[in-house]
Every structure is written in C-alpha cells, then in structure tokens.
C-alpha cells in the first residue's frame, strides 16, 4: 500500500490515539498525572491533588460583576494534565477525583451558611460541538459528581440545574487576550427555563473547571441574575495563578485554558 505523507501522518495519529485510548481503557498503563506505571491515578498524585485548601480567588484585573469565587487550588502541572486528560482524552475515571475537588470548593463557598438554604449548582455550558466530539460534557459530569459528594449527610439534597446554554458558537478562548475574551463571551449564555416560567427557588452556584480571566463566570452571573436567578457565587477546580500563597489573594493570570 502506498500512503502519501499526509495520509501517513494521519494514520500514525489514529494509531497513536487508539494506542492511548485502549491503554487507558484496558490496561491503565500509566498515571495520567506523572506517567508512573500502573493503573489510574497513582497514590502520590492523589495526595497532591487533595492537598490544597480551597480558597477565594480573584482575577487581576478583576472584571466588574465577577462573582465570589472559590478555587480548589492552583492550576499547576498536575491539574493541567488531569483536566486535559479528562476533557480531551475521555479519561472518565478522573471524574471522581476532579469532581471531589470541585465539591470541596463548593463546600468552602458554603461554609458558615445555613444547611437549610436551597442552593443548586449551575455548570458553565460546553459548546454542542465540543460535547459531540468528546462524547460527553465534562463540566456537567464533574458537576454531577460534586452534587453526589455534597449531598452526603445533608438534610436537603444538593442538585444540579443546567440553566445556562450557549447562545452562539464561541471562538476558542485559549487564543484570545483578556479584552477579546470579554467580547467573545458578551451575551454568550442564556438561561433556559426548566419546568416552568418562574426562576427556580434558591440561589445558584456557578461551577466550572478553571478560572482564568474570570470572563466566563462573570458572563454566567450576568445571564443568571438578569433572568431573576440569585447567584451565591462560583466554584472551580483550579485557578490559574502567578502566585498562589495560602492565606493571600491569588493572582489569576493568562493560561492555556481550553473550552
Ligand atoms: Zn502519578
């Protein structure tokens, strides 16, 4: 068989992809965090993922209307690898550990508030095209996991309400600077009504995997509040940081966030 240069590299790409997918599915060849041999996330990476205390973060500069936001820790190399594997390489086994870290951020946001208060988690919506190509909405999957984790031991179950939908196709945020991101996201989300015309009882907590410039969370908050849905705040797995010092405000900077 004669294969042209383009066809050959495409074939190699497919084979490599197959190799990686089958390895993850059937062998769990290496830790997705550090590539140590063995099935799934290794104990050392698990400890590192669970180590940071969630705390409040603010992007610099902070967009007007940015919600009170808690992050589970810095967007370090380990978290970058795990979120990328979960989102881009369908490493669904990571939903548990990443969703648990998201749950801790939500817990930090809720600390000191009445357990009887009705709150619900609203995931930032992924584009329909991304969901089609990845086979699943990774943010929604992490949110469902966090809901289960947070519901344990509560009188009132935590619930997810996917109230937001994208209003149009968005440009890839990773290639945009701060101003461009804000423009790209202006009016990007609309609120869908689930089971009735009235806004739901209770307050929303917006959830996402990352906070970078804060544009997505700010726009989500704007869409929800303008539809009459109160927003308590936001929670994310990680904040992209220049400096992440326990006890100090995080400095959130540009990063290779991908939506
Ligand atoms: Zn590892």
Shape field: globular
If you compute it from the alpha carbons, what radius of gyration comes out, rounded to the nearest whole angstrom? 19 Å
Question: Helix coverage percent of residues?
Answer: 25-40%
Main sheet properties: 8 strands, mixed
Mean pLDDT: 81
End-to-end separation: 39 Å
Family: Belongs to the ComF/GntX family.
Protein name: ComF family protein
Salient structural properties:
eight-stranded mixed beta sheet; disordered N terminus; PRTase-like; ComF/GntX_DNA_util-trans; ComF family protein; single chain; Rossmann fold; binds zinc ion; 259 residues; disordered C terminus
Report on this model:
With 259 residues, the protein is of the alpha/beta class. The chain has a single domain (53-252), classed as Rossmann fold. Helices cover 39% and strands 17% of the residues. It contains 8 helices and 10 strands. The chain has helices at 5-27, 43-50, 77-88, 95-110, 128-134, 138-151, 178-185, 215-226; strands spanning 55-59, 69-71, 119-123, 159-160, 164-166, 189-191, 203-211, 231-239, 241-243, 250-252. It has an 8-stranded mixed β-sheet, sandwiched between helices. A hairpin with a 6-residue loop joins strand 9 (241-243) and strand 10. Helix 4 crosses helix 6. It is globular and about 50 Å long. The model is unreliable at 1-6 and 243-259 (pLDDT under 50). Bound molecules: zinc ion. The site of zinc ion has 7 residues, from helix 2. Belongs to the ComF/GntX family. InterPro entries: ComF/GntX_DNA_util-trans (IPR051910), PRTase-like (IPR029057), PRTase_dom (IPR000836). This is ComF family protein.
């Amino acid at each position: 068989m004669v294969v042209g240069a383009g066809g050959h590299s495409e074939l190699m790409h497919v084979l490599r992809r197959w190799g990686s997918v089958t390895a993850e599915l059937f062998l769990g060849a290496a830790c997705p965090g550090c590539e140590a041999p063995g099935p799934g996330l290794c104990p050392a990476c698990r400890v590192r993922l669970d180590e940071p205390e969630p705390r409040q973060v603010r992007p610099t500069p902070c967009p007007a209307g940015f919600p009170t936001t808690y992050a589970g820790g810095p967007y370090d190399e380990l978290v970058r690898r795990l979120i990328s594997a979960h989102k881009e390489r369908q490493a669904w086994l990571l939903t548990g550990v990443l969703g648990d870290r998201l749950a801790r951020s939500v817990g930090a946001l809720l600390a000191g508030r009445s357990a009887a208060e009705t709150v619900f988690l609203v995931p930032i919506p992924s584009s329909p095209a991304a969901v089609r190509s990845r086979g699943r909405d990774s943010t929604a999957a992490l949110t469902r996991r966090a809901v289960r984790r947070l519901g344990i031991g509560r009188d009132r179950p935590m619930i997810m309400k996917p109230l937001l939908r994208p209003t149009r196709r968005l440009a890839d945020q990773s290639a945009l600077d701060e101003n461009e991101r804000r423009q790209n996201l202006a009016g990007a989300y609309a609120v869908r009504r689930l089971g009735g015309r009235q806004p739901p009882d209770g307050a929303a907590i917006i959830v996402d995997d990352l906070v970078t410039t804060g544009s997505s969370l700010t726009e989500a908050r704007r869409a929800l509040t303008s539809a009459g849905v109160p927003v308590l705040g936001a929670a994310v797995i990680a904040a992209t940081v220049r400096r992440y010092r326990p006890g100090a405000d995080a400095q959130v900077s540009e990063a290779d966030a991908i939506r």
